[in-house]
Amino acid sequence: MAGVSLGTVSNVLNNSAKVSESKRARVLEAVQAVGYQPSQLARGLRRETTNMIGMIIPDILNPFFPAVVRGAEDVAFSNGYRLILCNSDNDHSKEIIQLNELRTYLPAGLIVIPSNFSDLTAQAESYRRSGAGVVCVDRLPRNWSGDSVTANHEAGSYNATRHLLELGHTRLGIITGPLHLTNAKDRLAGFKRALKQAKIPMPPEYMQETTFDKQGGHAKATILLRLIPRPTAIFASNDMMALGALLAVRESGLRCPEDVSIMGFDDMDLCETTNPSLSSVSQSGYQLGSAAARLLLDRRQGDTSPAKNIVLKTALRLRDSVAPPTDEAQYGRPAKKRHGRPL
Amino acid sequence: MAGVSLGTVSNVLNNSAKVSESKRARVLEAVQAVGYQPSQLARGLRRETTNMIGMIIPDILNPFFPAVVRGAEDVAFSNGYRLILCNSDNDHSKEIIQLNELRTYLPAGLIVIPSNFSDLTAQAESYRRSGAGVVCVDRLPRNWSGDSVTANHEAGSYNATRHLLELGHTRLGIITGPLHLTNAKDRLAGFKRALKQAKIPMPPEYMQETTFDKQGGHAKATILLRLIPRPTAIFASNDMMALGALLAVRESGLRCPEDVSIMGFDDMDLCETTNPSLSSVSQSGYQLGSAAARLLLDRRQGDTSPAKNIVLKTALRLRDSVAPPTDEAQYGRPAKKRHGRPL
DNA sequence: TTGTAGGCGTTATCAG
DNA sequence: CTGATAACGCCTACAA
What we know:
six-stranded mixed sheet, 13 helices, alpha/beta, Rossmann fold, DNA-binding, homodimer
């Protein structure tokens, strides 16, 4: 149509070789006229790599993950990459299936928020062999030695715990997530470090491990609240758990923050709309995602430096669910049943 | 490796021709051994279609959309399809770019939640020509004549409004979304129908149009609350707006539901955690997404019936933000400034 | 029932 | 600087 050969068109479109101005113009004109778009499929087949970035997350319904996805998508899109999104449902076998199939698209890279118990070492190796980077986000699989982007879970919960201690709390309970997940483990570690530093003991029953959801938080908070002496502050390893804890406090006829302070982690939107509003450790899912995508693109540009572990800062977001312990709470006040206010 | 030719392997993998049991077994064994996975790229190139489904949504950070995505992904994945996700940011030009590029992947179909002012007629036509279906979800672009899946916005808000009327409210305000969006338009229509049927007049200032977010809801609710006589109930066209309205009520020194009832739309998670908890019209994003994916797969199986418009039911979810009007509210009670309780 | 060969739309190589 | 040509991995006629 432009009176030139196939190869010349390709050269124009990819700037892969010098093309005379006149022909280049003719080609571009024709491209405009027909609305030609190169087939990404054929291009990928030939180049042995595409402009897709695979992204595997546990569950997009968990309100924390969409932010990560969006951060990754923004960076990817503005650099000409597209995202293929899969939910692993925290199911490692589903994750493996997705990993294997995604690879046959020859993606430019892979961003993974690992499922429970995932071990991606072998898979990542095979991706790397085909020239695609793999970045883990938020939590790390067992023995992970590749690139990663995480928040500073340890420091975040250390600071949050410090704050509770400085307010005068001396009996602190923690509701921790599944300890095989690195993020749960790290958050617990920060909590323990702060306690140890303040020389505050932590009886084992003050630590309750459960799943990262409202039900878990509710069940374990109920247990904590029945302990004698009762903790005056509860650190929940994420906001969903904190929400469950808030409910449990209400149901136990106690008040937050007067009887029990509650601290969450993640700083999701719901923190602002609960009653009382939830104090929380803020981490930016968006930045997690965008940093991961950027890391991937750097690798693709030829960055072959050793594995990078990007660790993002957290910030303490104080709201109404945290206060100094009242004397009453400190020295014991019976938990009488009251009508719960709605959350 | 299995001692057979290329074509036989292909026949085994696709069941495309009879293959003797012995060879079939040998092939499968070899496939297992090497962990062979066919290249989706090459397969797509040859078949002129892939197992990808493109999905374009306005913004995954809007808490309503992830549910739609998840619904679509579940159906797609369990049928062997994958989702390519793009955020249009409600920007029609970005949407067009994505539409054009996505097509070059020869996707099996496209699921779109249209951006503002989008007109997809031409694009959809070109997808259809290449054998890929297009389904619009939640809202419809101008002049859309193709497949769609939406909630019954009109009936949902009609019922919600009926409920308010039955409680005895006679002065109802509405905060509506941008009226060029079909979902906003339909919700308004349901509201108006209920009012008309009850022979309740609606002065124009009782209707406020704004964006589908908290800020919009807050601003417009503030205006509604200053009207004399003040409405005793406010219907917000989505939950984010309802949340903003709740805030505005608080700031005006009024109480919800005693002075003003508030009704939302969408029934998002946050409805349960606000204070008071928000009554809302529930629509299932998950079902919206899964129905859309199913529709697409049907089309692919050869369903060539005329355009389908699947309309899903809504349900009224009553919580604490709605109550009969008090005499005080009904006959006028000064709005004195009070200390706001946190939401 | 099995094998062979052509071509899907690109890009890279290489000769002109 | 440009054009012809071979491959990328797969599927599908068609031939054996």
